[in-house]
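About this split. The held-out portion is used to measure sequence recovery: a designer receives only the structure tokens and must propose an amino acid at every position. Recovery is the fraction of positions where the proposal matches the reference. Here is one held-out target exactly as it appears in the evaluation file.
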């Protein structure tokens, strides 16, 4: 397991956060389009937005955050998507709990859920997907 309390890892986390921040716009944009314009159920819309953002985040993290040269892109992408899908499950559970049980606004709850999942995604991708 990678020591996460180093300057190098902190720098990667900042870059991961920047990529993730761009993903928030992709995620929210597609979620909004699906939910509000296409009238797709809100949790399905959330899954669509999250999955599209995960794919763009993979590409940016591969080339910029982790500088991966792994020639097995399909395997690496598969790992990233697996972690993202687990993250989606965590995201959806947090979102459901905050909206259904705590009565938070859907989009505010979504923002909080993204924060929780960001930590999960970084630590697991650092130690599993983009292992040097």
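Reference sequence for scoring:
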């Amino acid at each position: 397991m990678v020591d996460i309390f180093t300057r190098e890892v902190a720098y990667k986390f900042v870059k991961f956060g920047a990529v993730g921040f761009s993903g928030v716009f992709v995620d929210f944009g597609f979620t909004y389009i699906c939910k509000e314009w296409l009238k797709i159920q809100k949790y399905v819309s959330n899954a669509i937005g999250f999955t599209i953002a995960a794919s763009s985040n993979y590409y940016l993290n591969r080339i910029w955050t982790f500088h991966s040269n792994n020639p097995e892109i399909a395997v690496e992408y598969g790992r990233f998507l697996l972690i993202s899908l687990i993250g989606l499950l965590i995201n959806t559970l947090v979102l459901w709990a905050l909206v259904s049980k705590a009565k938070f606004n859907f989009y505010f709850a979504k923002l909080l859920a993204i924060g929780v999942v960001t930590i999960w995604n970084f630590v697991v991708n650092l130690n599993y997907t983009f292992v040097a």
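Annotator remark: The first helix runs from residue 7 to 37.
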